[in-house]
Design brief:
This protein starts with 13 loop residues before the first helix and ends in a 30-residue tail after the last helix. Strands 9, 10, 11, 12, 13, 14 and 15 form a seven-stranded antiparallel beta sheet that branches. The chain has about 525 residues and is of the alpha+beta class.
């Protein structure tokens, strides 16, 4: 590790020397240059006075401009750069390849240490990282400017983050996902939603409702943002999400790909949750393993994991700690809550009922209330408020949360007045739900085992060799075995032949008498 330079120097004084030489040249042109002036400059730069005279001679030979000649260095050629690219930044291997191909010249050639110094001098740390690990590694060496802070609710940022903790969800170990909305100016977590699986539009809308409302059980932070920064995730760019925020008058800023630095506030919260929350919980996915644990068994037993409800409680408590107790340097060592309340920017909000309507997905054309309820998605939905309206044939409009098919919200088809909620009438029991889920899991495991076995059988195996030889296959079968497997694994042509239907009638041939035929070409006539 290089030593830290002293605050008193030495520093590069080339620019100061050039200014001092220009001053001495002007004195010489005015015929006022003395030896005392030369010694004064030499004492200031702690050099001999003859060195200052050589500086003046250097300026005379370069048209009055002091141009120091640096030490000659070994420079990389295009062939050397190509070797570094070919060996993915491995300097030692690139040097050996250049020596083998004679690109370093005849002996005495440049040493390996000289080649290392040339690479470190001509290539930056980001360029060397790109040669070794690609563009993603190079971006880690980029420098980004801080965004203007602004006022509260000027800009929000949103993102998903996968919890690095396994949680017990109905007897299965899974890693939940967290969706949150962060105010850029104050770093306040305005809204949060947690799902036991990869989130979709319903999680985004649930977190948005929690972020916009700031009364009752919601946090005292929120409102309607002027702008919202999102990445290019399909769920954030969905029609339901974009229409909901556009109805609020919020401008959605879609960031370019591979640019997490453009929403640094929410990325900082993601990193803080991974290091300050998940690492201390049981079931942490990246817990170091001992040699005895590396046997394919999970490190955490199912009964040692947190249940889903406890995990949600811990996350919500951490969110409250982040907002009210955690101090941040860029907020002048204030908590996000203190920065939020110190900002007197007015807050725009919505009525909870209107907000609930705007964040629902439209269910299509109006539907009729029958004696069985409202039919939608191959099921009937009924509500207590429907009694007395079934035979009248009233028309209602349907809205629902994405992927939530057990409940719908109904509105009057003409006035769009909220009528009430309706629930699926033939909802299956919890026992049926559990049995169906287990059956689907067994079927998925069975097909996964078949897929693994098919990939293993399709992969050829060859004999090991220590000399140059053609590959010798090992999994060769006898003629009868090959015939049996071909009979078992029908080819697509054989499948089509087996599924043929000779009893179907052939299509009738078209009637050529009803066609309009082109006129025959005129015969060529002999020239007179």
């Amino acid at each position: 590790m290089p030593a830290t330079p002293s605050p008193d120097g030495p520093y590069d004084t080339t620019t100061l020397r050039a200014a001092a030489v220009r001053r001495l040249l002007r004195l010489r042109v005015a015929d006022r240059l003395t030896h005392h002036d030369v010694r004064t400059v030499a004492a200031a730069f702690t050099v001999h006075w003859r060195t200052v005279r050589r500086w003046i001679d250097n300026a005379d030979s370069h048209h009055g401009t002091y141009t120091p000649q640096g030490r000659p260095h070994f420079a990389l050629t295009p062939a050397m750069h190509e070797a570094l690219v070919q060996w993915h930044g491995n300097v030692a291997s690139a040097y050996l390849a250049l020596v083998a191909h004679g690109h370093l010249g005849t002996p005495p050639r440049a040493s390996q240490a000289t080649f290392y110094r040339a690479v470190n001098r001509e290539l930056s740390a980001g360029q060397r990282a790109a040669l070794k690990n690609g563009e993603a590694a190079r971006r880690r060496h980029d420098v980004h400017a801080l965004r203007p802070r602004g006022n509260r609710n000027d800009v929000w940022e949103t993102d998903h983050v996968e919890a690095s903790v396994f949680v017990n969800v109905d007897g299965r170990r899974t890693k939940p996902w967290i969706t949150w909305f962060i105010d850029h100016a104050t770093a306040v977590i305005c809204g949060v939603a947690i799902t036991p699986h990869q989130p979709s539009q319903d999680a985004i809308l649930a977190a948005a409702r929690d972020a916009i409302l700031h009364t009752d059980h919601h946090r005292p932070f929120g409102g309607i943002p002027r702008k919202l920064r999102v990445d290019r995730g399909r769920d954030f760019l969905g029609k339901c999400v974009t229409e909901a925020f556009q109805k609020f008058g919020t401008e959605i800023i879609v960031l370019p790909p591979y640019s997490p630095h453009l929403k640094g506030t929410v990325e900082a919260v993601n990193g803080a949750a991974k290091h300050m929350l998940f690492k201390g919980l049981p079931g942490y996915a990246h817990t170091p393993r001992s040699r005895r644990d590396r046997r394919g068994h999970p490190l955490w037993a199912l009964d040692e994991l947190l249940d889903y409800e406890t995990f949600i409680t811990i996350v919500l408590n951490w969110v409250d700690w982040w907002n009210n107790d955690h101090t941040i340097a860029r907020l002048h060592r204030r908590t996000p809550a203190q920065a939020w309340h110190a900002d007197l920017t007015p807050i725009d909000t919505l009525d909870p009922e209107d907000l609930h309507t705007y964040t629902l997905k439209d269910g299509g054309p109006p539907r009729k209330i029958t004696s069985k309820g409202v039919r939608w998605n191959s099921a009937y939905y009924v509500g207590d408020w429907m009694h007395g309206h079934g035979s009248a044939g009233e028309m209602v409009r349907l809205r629902h949360e994405p992927h939530h098919y057990h409940r719908i919200e109904l509105y009057d088809a003409d006035t769009l007045t909220y009528r009430g909620a309706a629930f699926r009438s033939d909802e299956m029991s919890p026992r049926q739900s559990r049995a169906l889920r287990n059956a689907r899991r067994r079927e998925a495991d069975r097909y996964a085992a078949k897929a693994r076995r098919a990939r293993k059988n399709a992969k050829p195996r060859y004999a090991a060799t220590s000399v140059a030889a053609t590959p010798e296959p090992l999994n060769r079968l006898t003629a009868s075995q090959a015939t049996a497997q071909l009979r078992q694994l029908q080819t697509p042509e054989a499948d089509l032949h087996a599924e043929s239907r000779p009893d179907l009638l052939n299509r009738p041939k078209p009637d050529s008498t009803r066609w309009t035929k082109p006129l025959p070409a005129p015969e060529p006539q002999d020239a007179p």
